[in-house]
Amino acid sequence: TSSHFYVYTLYTKTRLGYMYYKRQMRKARENYPGGHSATDPVEFNGVKIIPISVLSDNYSYLIIDRASSIAVVVDPADPQIVQAVLEAEGVMLEAILCTHKHWDHSGGNKGLKRLHSSCRVYGNAADNIPGLTHPLSHNDSVTVGRMRFKALFTPGHTVGHMIYLLDGQTVGAPSSLFSGDLVFLSGCGRMFEGSATTMLSSLDTVGSLTDDTLLWPGHEYAEDNLLFAAEVEPHNTARENKYQWVLQQRGQKLCTCPSTIGEEKQYNPFLRSHSAELHLALGVQQFQEEDWTQFRARVLEELRKRKDLYNRR
């Protein structure tokens, strides 16, 4: 809707958006002094991933190479909270991996860079990322200590959205995907700056990863997303089982990350544009002359429209 886009423009392109983010940050620190969700670190052979609960439903991620006590942070929205975790862990921040320009993902870049002068800030140049020092393109890699990340260009939510794949092979573990606002547990980001075709191609990038890849999204949206998924694939038992688990977690204010790509392919409707049950539920049929990818983009568009309406009620 045009009014929605107007609000979006104010948020991303004006000082007002920044003021709003600062207020959001202050309120979240008051309302959730211990964070909105309790999180548990995961460690594989000396590489430690710590989800950090920031703002009212965002996650930043600190990834540490224990052997050298150096770290990378993904989307440090609240620099003060991220800094506290860095100090508690006793590690040096070497790099910020930023998925996209929105303040709730990039707002802490400059503050952390002031505290860690040699810290590099990575992201795509098409997005106006605060403090960017190292612009990245599709398939570029970033190495910090023993950690090797591959940057994947996934526009749609914003024109320069990127996701980061931590290679697990170097430490004998599954890989980890830090997906920003492209993919959530059973959801995907709004298509603010891209067509359904663009977004589909970005989602297919995620769908092509190995099933054991761990998914670390930018927001805690699991409960709402699974409720919506029930409307469009009511008979999906994988979704029902995951929903019961999520209810248990959220009942205790526990984090629902990580999920896996294999699991997501079973119940995340945005990764299931090929599903016949979904086509039926959405009342979308393939035209005779329409190619499969065009049709799936139309399915995705309809799905996202429904989700936008669903979120408003």
TrEMBL record:
<dbReference type="InterPro" id="IPR017782">
    <property type="entry name" value="Hydroxyacylglutathione_Hdrlase"/>
</dbReference>
<protein>
    <recommendedName>
        <fullName>Metallo-beta-lactamase domain-containing protein</fullName>
    </recommendedName>
</protein>
<dbReference type="InterPro" id="IPR035680">
    <property type="entry name" value="Clx_II_MBL"/>
</dbReference>
<keyword id="KW-0378">Hydrolase</keyword>
<dbReference type="GO" id="GO:0004416">
    <property type="term" value="F:hydroxyacylglutathione hydrolase activity"/>
</dbReference>
<dbReference type="InterPro" id="IPR001279">
    <property type="entry name" value="Metallo-B-lactamas"/>
</dbReference>
<dbReference type="GO" id="GO:0019243">
    <property type="term" value="P:methylglyoxal catabolic process to D-lactate via S-lactoyl-glutathione"/>
</dbReference>
<dbReference type="Pfam" id="PF00753">
    <property type="entry name" value="Lactamase_B"/>
</dbReference>
<comment type="similarity">
    <text>Belongs to the metallo-beta-lactamase superfamily. Glyoxalase II family.</text>
</comment>
<feature type="domain" description="Metallo-beta-lactamase">
    <location>
        <begin position="57"/>
        <end position="219"/>
    </location>
</feature>
<dbReference type="InterPro" id="IPR032282">
    <property type="entry name" value="HAGH_C"/>
</dbReference>
<keyword id="KW-0479">Metal-binding</keyword>
<keyword id="KW-0862">Zinc</keyword>
<dbReference type="GO" id="GO:0005739">
    <property type="term" value="C:mitochondrion"/>
</dbReference>
<dbReference type="GO" id="GO:0046872">
    <property type="term" value="F:metal ion binding"/>
</dbReference>
<dbReference type="Pfam" id="PF16123">
    <property type="entry name" value="HAGH_C"/>
</dbReference>
<dbReference type="InterPro" id="IPR036866">
    <property type="entry name" value="RibonucZ/Hydroxyglut_hydro"/>
</dbReference>
